[in-house]
Amino acid sequence: MSEERKVIVDLKGVNKIYGNNHVVKDLDLVIYEGEFLTLLGSSGCGKTTTLRMVAGFEEPTGGTIQVEGEDIHNKEPYERDVNTVFQSYALFPHMNIYDNVAYGLKMKKVKKAEIKERVTEMLDMVQLGGFEKRYPSQLSGGQKQRVAIARALINKPKVLLLDEPLGALDLKLRKQMQLELKRLQRKLHITFIYVTHDQEEALTMSDRICIMNDGVLQQVGTPSEIYESPATRFVATFIGETNLFDGMVTAKENGRLHISIEPGDFYVPDEDFANHEMLAVSVRPERMLYSAEPVEGFHLAGTVKEQIYVGSVLKTVVELSNGNEVKIERLAGQELPKGGSVYLYWKDGDAKLIHTFDDVFAGAVEDIVMQ
Ligand SMILES: Nc1ncnc2c1ncn2[C@@H]1O[C@H](COP(=O)(O)OP(=O)(O)O)[C@@H](O)[C@H]1O
Ligand SMILES: [Mg+2]
């Protein structure tokens, strides 16, 4: 991501508290012009609240939100260049599709001829040309959602906010709409801030993903950055599958850390950790290597517990001495004898080290607050 990109939405130290429920905690987030940014997290983690604050429907308890360098609270909702699409379509049932899409332009007193041109163009864009005279009740769920999107885009907002817009659609239609929405966003070059709890949807559509957990931003990055280098234990387990080992640095030598976990120990190249620091190590199942012989620098012995073919993928489960299970995934490969001994290892760079001090600290602060 280049440094010169123009910032369009800027959240600084944003907090939202409802009663004694601290829903969004010290959120700093910059969104660039023309990007597709997704807020991803489990239900209740504060995604909708964040989006509603950007839309100006909800006032932050603390912090500031700027759109194009201007505090959004200096503007009335209708003056803002931000539009929203919700999961429920909220179309006007008594208006036909043309009038539904034209509504915003009529309110702005745009000339009739221009309205016609823009509505026609927008309906073509969402592949609903020829549906002008129909009423919402005569459309499928997917078509209704396309109308809602056309209606939101017709005013050419700088930023479009979408709150789980495909949540009500069945899986097949959802997948198709994901691709269409992404195509539309690229074509119009409008900034999308998209909310979903579906990691696959986020990975498919986004330029960058912002992962939240319990109101706290965990990591912002491209889909591959987040998958390859999870910043927190939460991200490592929330996105895809991983093997997570909790351990401690027991020595540092020549740029390598000696790390001990319960069932054994190993060396990893890294400088960014202190001696005796607690950490977590994440190794994706497809990066986990095994050998029938002990491997230098690793003392991770286990036994093969299970091997399952899932389509073309071979999944192997190895049990370590403390009973923990390690997942290994291969496209094809030689099966290992069940019950046989294996030694686990990985290439430098395939083990991602995660600071866990913050987890411990956050827990401690929460304990103090609760008292
Ligand atoms: N208007 C409100 N009043 C009180 N609590 C709210 C309100 N809106 C949301 N919440 C609470 O804030 C938390 C986050 O909600 P929300 O932002 O809707 O989560 P998400 O969209 O990630 O599922 C939840 O605990 C929810 O109950
Ligand atoms: Mg929500």
Structure description:
This protein has 371 residues and is α+β, with helices and mostly antiparallel strands. It has nine helices and 20 strands. The longest helix has 18 residues, at 171-188. The protein starts with 6 loop residues before the first strand and ends with a helix. The model has no long low-confidence stretch (mean pLDDT 90). The structure holds adenosine-5'-diphosphate (ADP) and magnesium ion. Residues 47-48 line the site of magnesium ion.
Supply database-style keywords.
binds magnesium ion; 371 residues; Rossmann fold; binds adenosine-5'-diphosphate; six-stranded mixed beta sheet; 26% helix; 35% strand; OB fold (Dihydrolipoamide Acetyltransferase, E2P); alpha+beta
Layout of SSEs?
Blueprint (H helix, E strand, L loop, with lengths): L6 E12 L2 E12 L3 E5 L6 H9 L6 E6 L2 E2 L10 E4 L11 H11 L4 H14 L15 H13 L5 E5 L7 H18 L2 E6 L2 H7 L2 E6 L2 E6 L1 H6 L4 H6 L4 E11 L2 E6 L2 E6 L8 E6 L5 E3 L9 E10 L2 E8 L4 E6 L10 E5 L6 E4 L1 H14 L1
Parallel strand pairs: 3-8, 3-9, 6-7, 7-8
Antiparallel strand pairs: 1-2, 1-4, 4-5, 9-10, 11-12, 11-14, 12-13, 14-20, 15-19, 16-17, 16-19, 17-18
Helix pairs in contact: 2-3, 2-4, 3-4
Bound molecules: adenosine-5'-diphosphate and magnesium ion.
